[in-house]
Amino acid sequence: MNATFNRARLMPPFLYHRKVLIVAFQGLLVMATYYTAFVLRLDFSVDSRSRTVFFLSLPWVLAIKLAIFRSHGLLKGWWRYVGMSDLVDIARASLISGMLIYAALWIGLWPRPGYPRSVILIDLVLTILFIGGARFVVRARTETLQTCVAQKETLVVGAGVAGSTIMRELKQNPDLDYKPIGFVDDDVTKLGIRIHGKRVLGTTNDIGALAVEHGVKCVLIAIPSAEGKKIDEIINKCSQSKVEFKILNGVGKRIEGRSSIDQIRRVRLEDLLGRAPVRLDLGNIQKKLQNESVLITGAGGSIGSELTRQVSQFRPGKVVLLERSENDLFRLCCELRRNFPMVNHIPVVGDILDVGLLREVFAAHRPHSVFHAAAYKHVPMMETNCFQAVTNNIFGTYNVALVARQFEVKDFVMISTDKAVKPTNIMGVTKRIAELIILGLQHQRTRFVAVRFGNVLGSNGSVLPIFEEQIRNGGPVTVTHPEAKRYFMLIPEAVQLVLQASTMGRGGEIFILDMGEDVKIDDLARNVIRLAGFEPGKEIKIVYTGLRPGEKLVEELRLQAEGPAPTTHEKIRVLQGGKVDFLQVRGWLDELSTLVESRNVHGLVKTLISLVPEYSPSEEILALCDVDRHDSIVRYRRDRASLAVHFGDAAA
After folding, report:
1. Cα–Cα distance between 57 and 650 in angstroms, integer?
2. CA distance 297 to 303
3. Segment 358-384, tens digit of pLDDT
4. Share of the chain above pLDDT 90, in %
5. Residue 615: which of 652, 586, 574, 589 has the closest Cα?
6. 492: helix, strand or coil
7. Is pLDDT at 11 greater than 60 in this prediction?
8. For the chain, which domains are there?
9. 488 has which bridge partners?
10. Which residues neighbour 130 within 8 Å (Cβ) at sequence distance 6 or greater?
11. What number of other Cβ atoms are within 10 A of residue 299's Cβ?
12. Helices (H) and strands (E) in the chain, counts
């Protein structure tokens, strides 16, 4: 902005009257083209008679052309930004003015004898060349001056529509700190062609050589549809060449009305995941949420807060935010007041273990839908706090679900996890039992469903913020195991699919989100280091610490026997959760409550195995039992698993 102000202040005084100057210059060009048309038509031999005809007709030609040019907006604007649309306007205006000039000649507005009518056709062509050419000369001069000021030699990856748009803006905007060198594109048919005056210099494999040859300091990745693996390859080449790299937002993230250069940003880890934009049935979600009362538990967490944001977009009547962390809830409410001032957000500081509070909230606000996101989620921590995990994840879920059923809530959606599949930790097995509990509470007036997915990138306590903090501190970056794999998706994507799944099914289903391919944590760490501008293993060390208590090497989203079926959405599958009797649920809770109160780890683990036979307790949780009980639990788990395989299991 300062640069623009300085240029305006230093502008010569006569340029303040640019509109008058443009009209005068256009008039001179019109006269020049018209006279040149006479000269060409008469083979450079203009006698006195022809000059008389020229001067008699000139006022009419000048008036008609300037009037038509004005109606097409050609007497204003900045010539430095001329493009193909301007050339089309010039051609259209020239054609219309030529037709009007011929009509004026025909009805005798000036003497016809001796007037060479072909002059009108020659003048039409010359007008397009002169008027259009003058503009493009100004644009070319402006771009030449701008390249002398720009600092960063820049290579654009992708010679498609996005790359072409960015190149045009780089050349036209003198305030941008980029000096465009050319393109690279893996389409070999484009090699050597020129786009906006810049050549396609090679393929992405040539980035390193081109960076050395042309002194490239920045690479702009303009391939909105590129997969994560392709972006990863480009980033690797940029990192090896020690050049800065940025990316254009994907097609699904474009904001209408903004220029493409505004959407250039630093590459983020989610770009490397290559997650395609989610297709949503907005009509069904709108019908479900608009003008209704919605309750979200755990509203201050990563999933809960994003649920709140996306639910608010559908204009619900009110959104009740239940959260026990007052600081998280305060920050969320400040954001919501700023971004969704028309939606009534009601913050409630409280715990899902407080049944009295739950009844008060449900009675006061009568929610139509409940999204239950509150849970303890940290695997290693729950291994050493097993009673708290059982209390919060099992009893808490039962409390919210039972009160929802008593107040005849229409829909109850529980956020589950892939760790509930063949669990090896307390967190996973408690979430699996929570799934079974809501199935046991299934009621004709309340539809209970669960949505199961894996890790979300950037959530509280996930690996991404941990890696970023370790890099800021200079390393090392800690990875549990070089072969450890996890499923990852973006928080907004996960929540979008949760909302979509909430409109499906009749109740009693477990929906599984498509997590794509699982990702090595080691690869993830190396990518985060590269995106921070460092060389993995050299500038930032990677240290392997071993799997933590309760962790698997590879996570799963379903058991082989579950056989999920497709739904109307390509990224959501469904499995029938099975039938669980309500009295059976009450029996489980009574037994678990007794064990929690007596702090009986041995009995607790044994009961968890009886409810979920595929549960394999970790060595850490078994270590809390004495040796004899340790052996009995191992034998008991083996026997229960064997019975489940041969005869089936009520809990499963």
Report:
1. 100
2. 10
3. 999 999 999 999 999 999 988 889 998
4. 24
5. 652
6. helix
7. no
8. 15-143 (no CATH), 150-267 (3.40.50.720), 282-455+488-515+556-581 (3.40.50.720), 600-647 (no CATH)
9. 455
10. 29, 32, 33
11. 28
12. 24, 22
The DSSP 8-state label assigned to residue 393 in this structure reads I
Prediction pTM value = 0.67
**Mean pLDDT, rounded, of the chain:** 79
Least confident of 171-175, 197-201, 352-356, 594-598: 171-175
Q: What DSSP assignment string belongs to 522-537?
A: HHHHHHHHHHTT--BT
Strands 485-486 and 519-520, how do they pair? antiparallel
Most confident of 117-131, 392-406, 537-551, 623-637: 392-406
- Confidence category of residue 293, pLDDT binned at 50, 70, 90: very high
H or E element at residue 513: strand 509-513
pLDDT at 540 over 70: yes
Q: Which amino acid is at 123?
A: D
- Please, which pLDDT band fits residue 35 given cuts at 50, 70 and 90? confident
| Alpha-carbon gap, residue 106 to 91, rounded angstroms | 23
Which residues in 325-468 belong to E strands, given as ranges? 344-349, 369-372, 411-417, 447-453, 455-457
CA–CA separation, 468 vs 525, rounded Å?
9
Torsion of CA 378, 382, 387, 391, to 10 degrees: 10
Model pLDDT, residue 258: 43
> Of the candidates 178, 189, 193, 183, which has an alpha carbon nearest to the alpha carbon of residue 158?
183
Q: In what order do the strands lie in the sheet with 572-576?
A: 344-349, 318-323, 293-297, 369-372, 411-417, 447-453, 509-513, 572-576, 565-566
180, 181, 184, 189: CA torsion to nearest 10: 110
Q: Which residues, at least 6 apart from 506, have a Cβ–Cβ distance to it below 8 Å?
A: 447
Residue 149 has pLDDT above 60, yes or no: no
3-state secondary structure of 442: coil
Tracing tokens 């610490």 back to the chain, one arrives at: 545
Q: What radius of gyration, in Å, describes the C-alpha atoms of the chain? A: 35
Measure the CA dihedral 536/541/545/546, to 10°. Answer: 30
Distance CA 225, CA 515 (A): 19
Write out the DSSP string of 549-618.
TT--SB--SS-TTT--EE-SSTTEEEEE-----HHHHHHHHHHHHHHHHTT-HHHHHHHHHHH-TT----
Q: At 202, is the secondary structure helix, strand, or coil?
A: strand
Residue that is written with structure tokens 């002059």 in the block:
119
Distance CA 562, CA 96 (A): 72
Q: Annotated active-site positions, please?
A: 419
Q: How far apart are CA 75 and CA 82, in angstroms?
A: 13
Which DSSP category does 15 fall into?
G
Helix (H) or strand (E) holding 143: helix 118-149
pLDDT tens, 240-262? 888 888 887 653 343 333 445 55
Of the chain, the end-to-end C-alpha distance in Å amounts to 65
